[in-house]
Write a structure and sequence with these properties.
Layout: E1 14-16, E2 26-32, H1 42-56, E3 64-68, H2 72-83, E4 87-93, H3 98-106, E5 110-114, H4 119-132, E6 137-138, H5 145-162, E7 169-173, H6 178-190, E8 195-201, E9 229-233, H7 235-249, H8 255-270, E10 274-280
Parallel strand pairs: 2-10, 3-4, 3-6, 4-5, 7-8, 7-10, 8-9
Antiparallel strand pairs: 1-2
Helix pairs in contact: 1-2, 1-5, 2-3, 5-6, 7-8
């Protein structure tokens, strides 16, 4: 029995790919983060960022929170904030899928939609302006060390233990970079030979949850030396692999997971041998109104 829904965050399954890898000496495992109660890997960071801020006294129950998000972090923050009885305003581009907006509102969060042309950068600018007015505390996932430390404390150890210390490569999409930073830090402490592979979109590709940031918006928690290799994926390849995950592996996930999987499969075809773990960061049901599954 659990005292709270928050007790269900983490300890997500690791599942071996059944059809996508032909190389008999390479095993590909998917870390199914959609199994978290809020439906994504962002539950880990949201819980750690809010709880740590409360524990330090940075915020109180009376503090009004604000955060810019492309979706999953906002859903996770809305869920965690509600458990801690905190008010939160979430800011996202107006072209975000309706499922994500409705889910945040279902948890009781205020959702503000910014101009689509401004993208997530425009949402970040809006949140910064509101915080500068003095009435809000911004979680600031892009600069918050509690983001990556959540993965140092949970995601990394889970992968290390579930592969019986045999993982050779870790693959993750790069957005706020919290997942790859924290997991890399832990795994490299255990075995510096483990290769950390970050996934970014090709130029002119739009893949929700994966970003190639302009220099001015590069997350401050990102440390380049913690990533051994960056692989780029196109929007078309990410969509195709998202569909293939569902039809061939029975894994219903979003487009950033398809992008990470496309990179992971390409990596597996290059290796002579190894155990590759790739993050499947969320579930596909929050993208049904998009054209991914048409």
């Amino acid at each position: 029995m659990n005292d709270s829904i928050l007790d269900l965050i983490g300890n997500t399954p690791l599942v071996k790919a059944q059809t996508l890898v032909d190389n008999p000496k390479v095993q590909l495992y998917f870390k199914l983060e959609g199994q978290n109660p809020g439906g994504s890997v962002k539950d880990r960071a949201a819980y750690n960022m809010i709880k740590s801020a409360l524990d330090r006294g940075d915020i109180t129950r009376e503090t009004k929170l604000i955060e810019a998000t492309s979706g999953n972090t906002g859903i996770a923050l809305a869920m965690v904030a509600r458990i801690f009885k905190l008010d939160i305003e979430l800011v996202m581009p107006e072209n975000s899928t309706i499922e994500r907006v409705q889910t945040m509102r279902a948890y009781g969060a205020k959702v503000t939609l910014t101009d689509a042309d401004g993208g997530i950068e425009g949402a970040r600018d809006y949140a910064e302006e509101k915080m500068a007015g003095g009435d809000y505390f911004m979680i600031n996932q892009f600069s918050n060390n509690d983001n990556w430390q959540a993965h140092y404390n949970t995601t990394g150890p889970e992968i290390w233990n579930d592969t019986k210390h045999k993982v050779t490569h870790f693959v993750s999409s790069m957005g706020t970079t919290g997942t790859i930073m924290g997991t890399s830090t832990f795994l490299k402490e255990k075995n510096k030979e483990i290769q950390i592979v970050g996934v970014q979109p090709t130029d002119n590709s739009r893949i929700p949850g994966i970003r190639k940031w302009p220099e001015a918006y590069l997350p401050k928690i990102f440390t380049p030396k913690k990533v051994d290799r960056i692989m780029e994926v196109s929007e078309d390849d990410a969509v195709a692999m998202t569909k293939k995950l569902a039809t061939e592996e029975g894994i219903f996930a979003g487009m950033s997971s398809g992008g990470a999987t496309a990179a992971a499969v390409r990596l597996c075809n290059e290796l002579e041998e190894g155990i590759v773990v790739s993050i499947v960061c969320d579930r596909g049901d929050r993208y049904l109104s998009s054209n991914i599954f048409d």
